[in-house]
């Protein structure tokens, strides 16, 4: 059954010129890109996007990094999109992510971990509203 999810290619990956490669991996997997946007998060928008982490000690670092440069946000559609995309991006700590996953192939950081993807239907709804200014 077709499902939608959101991913954000983070400032580290955009500045390294990896956005095209990363989008292409989702297209080759079989997902359809149904919305795509390049922008820079404002501090307020980033705090809203990541509000689930607002009480965590790394929240300041997270907001500072995600607002540090342009990101590319995409909404994609396809079978089992939310779970399959999480498998494709790999473990949060890029240095532990297995080769073959996006973080495993492109990153070594933790805060700077190449890509974010929604982990549930409710995260998708919240995050896509914030990233695409739908609310
Ligand atoms: P992401 O998938 O965007 O979701 C939340 C982000 O917080 C995560 O990727 C990491 O980049 C970041 N993060 C999670 N835990 C830590 C941590 N302990 N220290 C620094 N950054 C973290």
Structure characteristics:
single chain; binds adenosine-3',5'-cyclic-monophosphate; four-stranded antiparallel β-sheet; alpha+beta; 21% strand; 41% helix
Q: Would you kindly provide a written description of the structure presented here, covering whatever features stand out?
A:
The chain has helices at residues 11-15, 19-29, 43-49, 59-66, 81-89, 102-106, 121-131, and strands at 2-9, 32-39, 71-79, 115-117. The chain has 135 residues and is of the alpha+beta class. Adenosine-3',5'-cyclic-monophosphate binds next to α4.
Whole-number average pLDDT?
97
Question: Beta-sheet strand percentage?
Answer: 15-25%
Number of helices: 7
Distance between the termini: 27 Å
Rg result: 14 Å
- Main β sheet profile: 4 strands, antiparallel
The total of beta strands comes to: 4
Summary, kept brief:
Helices cover 41% and strands 21% of the residues. It has helices spanning 11-15, 19-29, 43-49, 59-66, 81-89, 102-106, 121-131; strands at residues 2-9, 32-39, 71-79, 115-117.
Provide the fold topology.
Elements: E1 2-9, H1 11-15, H2 19-29, E2 32-39, H3 43-49, H4 59-66, E3 71-79, H5 81-89, H6 102-106, E4 115-117, H7 121-131
Antiparallel strand pairs: 1-3, 1-4, 2-3
Adenosine-3',5'-cyclic-monophosphate is lined by residues 53, 58, 61-62, 92, 110-111, 113, 116.
């Amino acid at each position: 059954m077709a499902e939608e999810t959101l991913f954000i290619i983070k400032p580290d990956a955009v500045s390294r010129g990896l956005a095209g490669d990363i989008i292409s991996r989702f297209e080759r997997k079989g997902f359809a890109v149904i919305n795509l946007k390049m922008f820079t998060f404002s501090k307020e928008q980033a705090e809203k996007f990541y509000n689930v982490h607002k009480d965590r000690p790394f929240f300041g670092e997270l907001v500072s990094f995600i607002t540090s440069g342009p990101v590319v946000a995409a909404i994609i559609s396809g079978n089992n999109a939310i779970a399959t995309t999480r498998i494709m991006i790999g473990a949060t700590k890029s240095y532990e992510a297995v080769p073959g996953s996006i973080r495993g192939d492109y990153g070594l950081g933790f805060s700077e971990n190449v890509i974010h993807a929604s982990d549930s239907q409710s995260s998708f709804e919240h995050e896509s509203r914030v990233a695409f200014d739908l609310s």
